[in-house]
Write a structure and sequence with these properties.
The protein has 1499 residues and is α/β, with parallel strands linked by helices. The protein is built from 44 helices and 57 strands.
Length: 1499
């Protein structure tokens, strides 16, 4: 925020801050106009802002630190070229003043309807590129305040150690029944002025704008979400011209002295004109250093040819034979050595393949170059001594093996290493034929590198055609600024040069960087007739022009602009001409040409005759172009493209325009298509790629009926354009730069130009912008990536980004999906310093681009989402049932074995209460050990026999009578670490007739988060007393505790460390088994605190069901590594051993943190057959011990004894975790059948448990799309969008389950999704709440089916969705086995677009997208989907995650992510059961407590 003099918004009085927030809200909801808002706001802030005369305080900005960097002032004069274009210089290929005006006009239009886009939130420590003042921009008051500003410690180091938050701390004071949907729509207790909510509010306002392509109506079949196919726009322009006819160039004149082959020309000049200069090389300062004469070129090429053929191997086994391919690796500043090598190869009849010098082991695109070398079968590379020394080496001095390259032998071609050929040796120079002469590499749009093979005859004919078109004559001087290894630089500067005995001055790119005017000076000094340049060279020369007054360009008859195919070249040419016309440059000398590796020179403007009329221009409508139609622009001057012609077809050539996709159909005269050329001068094939070759080099055009036109094959040039009046050729773009979005074609270069026209100087580094498209959700989406100047402020960058979006939107009528800024100089470069587009795209898709700013606009771009589902009027439950009966489908229900029929010993009949069982055991088997507690070292620290436990419980009961003065029925909170003390206190309460409530103790290091939950349970349960240890008692009364809760009002606290030895007068016996035994409190994942009442009869039935299912009896041992505070964990820890008499080995899960081996080594050491754990324990072992299986073996740990390893859970089974656990530890004997899961809920803590008998858990694959529609569709393994579900163990004895439609409460059929309802003797008897809401009790615990149940059974609703499926397996009872599959909690599901989503499914997709995502959680707020990801990599990767997360959720779930929040590891709260606390996370996010690394608001 802009800081008023008092030190920021925080120093404004609270009421002012609240009034401001209220104003923001009024504005966002449209209750006040922008003007009224600014007026009121200015009035509120007036007293707090030092007034500047006549400036509206709302518009004032903090003065910026504008001291110039000292470096700039003291820089020596040599840097004047640099300064002229430092950093901000635009990429001048796209320079256009007309366009800039158009963009400004378009933006002005937008300004009238200006939307405040929420600015992303960024932690300051991330991506600091420049001094701090540049990083904290002075922000306008109207920009939403930056969320990070208030966090006192923004650096990650100051964060407190993250602690696994217990399920507490997330308590909502609401009980289960309060309507959660009302909570979802408000800020849920977060003040409306919260920063995050203002931003989200802004985002919602932005999204309220109508999107462009209006959604058309389309048919929705409820069974399938139909992605909208963009319909053609009825008003789109259609081509109206006649079909074009191929255009011929002038005939290729036959000149009497043209040589039969290029090598013959070299021989002729080398022997007859040996002293004539052929090529002059310049040094780094731009001064000529060496001139190669024709004689020298001939003699040195001969030596090289001889050496290659005769001196590399033995006489019988030469290394090279004619026709072999050889790599030429020469730096760009050494044209002489390259020329000798190139002609040496031609004379030796080996085929040169010029490539760039590799700089590092992993150059951008280097691997693909390696692929080209491999496919050409290259084993030999020629280079210079200097270059070889500069190549990267290994430790022992060998050249490194470049990634993807074949093994190469390096040959140095410096003269001193070459052998002179014997007098009688002559190279074989035959007449040029179709045999290959050389291979030029080209990089395709996808980044693959292909070799265009040029035959000797094509090379010769091309030189002849160029000579004729450019009217070259012997002895002319030409200046070449281009890369001499390929394209026009090679064709003019190396080949046509020799054909016509020209003298080439080669200006290396490195010189152009330091002295941009060097080529103009060379033209002036040498009175050059021709110069070969690109637009960037024109622009650089203009920038540096001030330094050189006295240059003359009057000698130039041709200034060949070789990237004339770029439609934006026209403005560079115009500007250059207007500046240098006074220096003698003739307007008719400017000759744009169009080239491509496949077709070579496609067209070139012939040197004009003085006074002849200058060629025409075309001003085309961008909208027409996007439909591939030529329309002169009339309507909106903002969206026009001005193009200049690139001259006529080459001599002897023929040209036609065909449709760019599909069969090569000839275009109409007013249609844009791909230019195809037919002549002897093009490439002949892609080396080694026959299929692609056919489509490119052997194209026979067809007419609209599909029949071929003529039999002459054409070559596709990869250029898009048309032939205009007077047979002039116009190029409007490249196929490689084509972005086809929703059926319309846009040109990447055009979009780059628009981006640069938006005041990019302050933001974009050297005009480096890349534009490409990625395929997301059935359409191409446009991505713009730019390099950001090191000194650009956040504010400027964000401003620029939002304006670019608007400009592209209004000029090209297309939305940008993602706009990213990366730090300067970080995009992958091509050898000559341009941006390597395909590599950039690859980085973007794999999340390694490391942007420093990003803006995603999926809401605006993605218009093909299926329609939101409308809920159909429900079919009544009776009809559903009749329908199922008619279809022969059974009702979805299942049951465990019948408790009544199973014989049990007389224990059960005798004892209805656990207290009686314990007393009986204390008498019958006093010394039988029931419990064994282990510490982190695995040594037993405490044991309890039946008698010890009974005695201890008696003592605790007597203390309760004496100190607590409690009455039967009072609630007592037990606050103990996991252990035997907790168990004793539990039975002590039962002995005294009190109701125990077990509560997880607060965490000493994190009292503020964990103590309030304890307090809340104490209050909600109306506890009369707290039993605990001395340590915890001190903690509860400590100063730190007082800071978190009110410690003065605790109930009586009794510590049970030193108990008096006192006999209990009598042990309490409840009058009926329906009386309350204990309260089970737990916090659900949605943040609800719920306590349920467990009666004595339910406890008895529960223990009995578990005993029968797991076959527990007194000679058995089980190991438990679980938290003992609620649910089945508590039952197993405290109740089962006393009931069944087996021995429980207790392993507190927190001990695993200091010894990961503890649980597995215990199981192995005690040869445990049945063990219970939680998902968090299993995850700890999987992650921590996954790579230590050998260590486990060495320690002698063996798990072959394990029969069942049960994960206790209240959620959908996490199959991926259980499967990886089984796989990892199968090497130490774990059976693949051992691992299973349980299922319980609040109303019934144990519904399913695998147990020892019965079939193994079954799995099915279901269709995710159907689940969203509340349906189950079973699919095959590997089907797209399939989800693997596993059965949650077997249903316990005495339990019945039925699947019910949660809305109609009618039963559903087999394999249908519905809510799981349960009926069992151990169901809890109700909620224990402050409110005792009777209707809720009835609805959740005692509810009846609305139809079809004559017996009127009372069911409890679990709140989980699932389905029952009858399998082919046989259950223990002999019937067919019914499997229960849990899909997820109803409370947790997200309702979006009329569909039901389970967060875990979205989270699974997100976690897979990038290796640095440690954990992920999703929730919704005001119908926006918020995704929080934990970043375990370095902070630079934070912004890489934003597009990946958005893409995957869109692709796999048809949802648009509203906000992506990147946080540190450990921020997503997870409870002791290993469940994510999503609502707690949501509240922390809205209250701005997450200290996020980055928050991206998707537009």
């Amino acid at each position: 925020m802009a800081e008023p003099a008092g030190g920021g918004a925080c120093s404004l009085p609270r009421e002012i801050r609240e009034q401001l927030a209220e104003l923001e809200l009024e504005l966002s909801e449209g209750d006040i106009t922008q003007k009224g808002y600014e007026k009121k706001r200015a009035k509120l802030l007036a007293p707090y802002i030092p007034q500047t005369h006549g400036v509206d305080p709302a518009l004032q900005k903090e003065p910026r630190n504008q001291t110039p960097a000292p470096a700039a002032t003291s820089a020596p004069s040599s840097s004047k070229y640099h300064r002229a274009r430092s950093g901000g210089a635009r990429d001048e290929r796209y320079r256009s003043d007309i366009h800039t005006e158009a963009v400004q006009a378009a933006l002005a239009k937008h300004k009238e309807q200006k939307m405040a886009l929420p600015m992303p939130t960024k932690r300051r420590s991330t991506f600091v590129q420049s001094p701090a003042d540049a990083c904290t921009p002075p922000e306008n008051f109207s920009v939403p305040p930056d969320v990070t500003a208030t966090t006192s410690s923004s650096s990650s180091s100051a964060r407190p150690a993250t602690i696994d938050l217990p399920p507490s701390g997330i308590v909502k004071g609401t009980h289960k029944g309060s309507n959660r949907s009302s909570l979802m729509d408000t800020a849920d207790g977060v003040p409306v002025s919260s920063r995050v909510s203002t931003k989200i509010q802004q985002l919602l306002n932005t999204l309220k704008r109508p999107k462009r392509p209006p959604l058309k109506e389309f048919f929705v079949d409820d069974f399938e979400e139909i992605v909208e196919v963009p319909q053609p726009d009825p008003n789109q322009p259609k081509p109206e011209g006649r079909q074009m006819t191929p255009v011929k160039g002038e005939p290729l004149g036959v000149v009497c002295n043209w040589p039969p082959a290029l090598e013959s020309a070299l021989q002729r000049w080398g022997t007859t004109q040996a002293k004539c200069p052929c090529l002059t090389a310049l040094d780094v300062t731009g001064k000529p250093v060496y001139t190669l004469t024709y004689g020298k070129l001939w003699s040195r090429s001969l030596k090289l040819a001889y050496t290659l053929l005769n001196k590399l191997g033995t006489k019988n086994e030469p290394v090279l034979k004619p026709g072999d391919r050889v790599a030429l690796v020469y730096p760009n500043n050494d044209p002489v050595m390259f020329m000798v090598a190139f002609y040496g190869c031609l004379l030796a009849e080996v085929i040169p393949v010029p490539i760039e010098v590799p700089l590092t082991r992993k150059d951008a695109g280097g691997q693909q170059i390696g692929f080209l070398l491999g496919s050409c079968g290259i084993t030999l590379a020629l280079t210079t001594e200097v270059c070889l020394k500069g190549l990267p080496k290994t430790q022992n001095g060998e050249i490194v093996q470049f990634k993807g390259w074949p093994r190469l032998k390096w040959v140095v071609t410096d003269s001193k290493y070459l052998s002179k050929s014997p007098k009688d040796w002559q190279p074989n120079i035959s007449t040029a034929g179709t045999e290959p002469a050389y291979i030029e590499y080209k990089t395709s749009k996808e980044g693959s590198v292909m070799g265009v093979t040029v035959s000797r005859i094509a090379m010769l004919s091309h030189c002849q055609a160029l000579s004729q078109a450019c009217n070259y004559s012997e002895g002319e001087t030409i200046v070449n600024v281009l890369d001499f290894k390929k394209d026009a630089g090679l064709w003019h500067g190396m080949l046509t040069n020799v054909m016509n005995k020209l003298h080439t001055l080669s200006v290396p790119y490195s010189v152009m960087k330091t002295c941009p005017l060097s080529w103009v000076q060379r033209v002036h000094t040498h009175k050059a007739k021709v110069a070969l340049v690109k637009c960037r060279d024109l622009h650089w020369a203009m920038m540096a022009h001030r330094d050189q007054r006295d240059v003359s360009l009057s000698s130039l008859r041709m200034l060949i602009v070789t990237d004339g195919a770029n439609p934006w070249s026209v403005s560079s040419c115009d500007a250059f001409l207007s500046l240098f016309q006074s220096h003698g440059l003739k307007p008719e000398a400017i000759c744009p040409c169009a080239t491509s590796p496949e077709a070579m020179t496609v067209a070139i403007r012939r040197p004009g005759v003085p006074g002849a009329p200058l060629p025409g221009r075309a001003i085309l409508s961008m909208n027409g172009l996007s439909y591939g139609v030529i329309r002169v622009n009339t309507e909106d001057k903002n969206s026009a493209l001005t193009v200049q012609d690139v001259g006529h077809v080459m001599p002897g050539g023929m040209m036609c325009i065909v449709k760019p996709d599909g069969s090569p159909q000839l275009c109409k005269t007013d249609e844009i298509g791909e230019i195809c050329v037919s002549s002897r001068t093009g490439g002949m094939m892609y080396y080694g790629l026959a299929g692609v070759t056919k489509n490119t080099f052997e194209v026979i055009p067809v007419n609209s009926a599909g029949s071929p036109v003529g039999d002459v094959p054409f070559v596709r040039s990869g250029l898009l354009g048309f032939v205009g009046p007077g047979s002039l050729v116009f190029v409007v773009g490249k196929i490689d730069g084509l972005l086809t979005v929703s059926g319309r074609r846009h040109n990447a270069d055009d979009i780059v130009a628009t981006g640069l026209a938006v005041e990019s100087i302050k933001t974009v580094y050297r005009g480096r912008i890349a534009v490409f498209s990625v395929s997301v959700f059935y359409d191409e989406r446009i991505v713009v990536v730019a390099e950001q100047r090191p000194d650009a402020s956040e504010e400027d960058s964000f401003q620029w980004m939002s304006r670019v979006l608007q400009a592209i939107d209004s000029i090209h009528q297309v939305g940008v999906y993602c706009l990213a800024l990366v730090p300067a100089n970080t995009l992958p470069k091509t050898p000559l310093g341009g941006i390597h587009i395909s590599q950039t795209k690859q980085h973007f898709l794999e999340g390694s681009l490391h942007p420093c700013n990003i803006l995603m606009c999926p809401h605006t771009c993605v218009t093909n989402l299926p329609k939101p589902r409308q809920k159909q009027p429900g079919v009544g439950p009776a009809s559903v049932m009749v329908g199922n009966l008619v279809a022969g489908k059974r009702i979805a229900q299942a049951a465990g074995r019948d408790l009544g029929q199973i014989e049990d010993n007389d224990l059960v009949r005798k004892h209805q209460f656990l207290t009686e069982v314990l007393q009986w055991r204390a008498q019958a088997t006093p010394d039988h050990t029931l419990f064994l507690l282990l510490n982190a070292k695995g040594t037993p620290v405490c044991t309890a026999t039946c008698l010890q436990l009974h005695k201890r419980a008696e003592r605790i009961a007597s203390v309760l009578y004496d100190k607590g003065h409690l009455n039967a029925g009072d609630n007592v909170v037990l606050l103990y670490p996991p252990g035997i003390e907790l168990i004793a206190a539990f039975y002590g309460c039962l002995y005294a007739g009190c109701i125990p409530v077990t509560v997880r103790p607060p965490h000493a290091q994190n009292l503020t988060a964990t103590l309030p939950t304890v307090r809340m349970i104490v209050d909600v349960s109306k506890a009369a007393c707290i039993l605990t240890t001395q340590t915890l008692m001190r903690l509860l009364k400590s100063r730190e505790a007082a800071a978190a809760v009110d410690v003065k009002t605790w109930p009586t606290i009794i510590d049970t460390d030193d108990l008096p030895r006192k006999r209990l007068p009598q042990i309490y016996k409840p009058p009926t088994p329906e009386m309350l035994a204990y309260l089970d409190f737990s916090v659900s994942t949605t943040g609800m605190l719920t306590g349920v009442k467990m009666s004595h009869s339910a406890v008895n039935a529960l223990c009995r069901a578990i005993k029968l299912q797991c076959e527990l009896y007194s000679s058995r041992q089980i190991a438990i590594c679980l938290d003992p505070y609620c649910g089945l964990g508590f039952t197993l820890w405290c109740l089962c051993s006393v009931y069944s008499g087996h021995q429980s080995i207790l392993i507190p899960p927190m001990e695993l943190e200091s010894n990961l081996f503890l649980w597995l080594s215990t199981v192995s050491q005690y040869k445990i057959r049945d063990t219970f754990c939680s998902y968090s324990v299993m995850e700890l072992c999987t992650k921590g011990l996954g790579n230590q299986v050998e260590v486990l073996k060495a320690r002698g740990i063996n798990l072959s004894c394990v029969r069942t390893c049960v994960v206790v859970a209240e959620e959908r089974p996490r199959i991926s975790l259980t499967q990886s656990f089984s796989k990892l530890f199968k090497d130490i004997g774990l059976s693949s059948r051992a691992v299973s899961t349980t299922f319980g809920s609040r109303v019934n803590v144990a519904i399913c448990l695998q147990g020892t008998s019965g079939p193994d858990p079954t799995t099915v694959y279901v269709d995710l799309k159907s689940l969203r529609h509340d349906r189950v569709r079973l699919v095959e393994r590997g089907a797209p969008q399939s989800l693997l579900l596993s059965e949650s163990g077997k249903i316990l004895p005495g339990v019945k389950v039925i699947i019910v439609n949660p809305e109609t409460k009618g039963p559903v059929g087999d394999s249908h999704l519905g809510e799981i309802w349960v009926n069992s003797p151990h169901t809890a008897s109700g909620y224990y709440t402050i409110y005792d809401n009777e209707s809720l009790q009835a609805d959740h615990f005692n509810t009846r089916l609305s139809f079809g149940d004559a017996a009127q059974t009372l069911w409890a609703r679990t709140g989980y969705l699932g389905f029952v499926r009858r399998t082919e397996l046989t259950a223990a009872s002999g019937d067919r086995h019914d499997a229960l599959y849990v899909v997820g909690a109803l409370d947790e599901t997200l309702e979006l677009r009329g569909l039901r989503y389970h967060p875990i499914d979205i989270e699974t997709s997100v976690s897979r997208t990038h290796r640095s995502i440690a954990e992920c959680a999703v929730f919704t707020w005001t119908n926006l989907l918020v995704v929080v990801v934990e970043l375990c990599g370095c902070e630079q990767e934070a912004l890489d995650l934003v597009p990946l997360v958005t893409n995957v959720v869109l692709e796999e779930h048809y949802l648009i992510v509203g906000v992506v929040v990147v946080v540190d590891p450990g921020v997503i709260p997870i409870n002791s059961r290993g469940e994510k606390q999503r609502m707690h996370l949501r509240d922390s996010f809205l209250a701005d407590q997450l200290d996020p690394i980055y928050v991206a608001y998707n537009m």
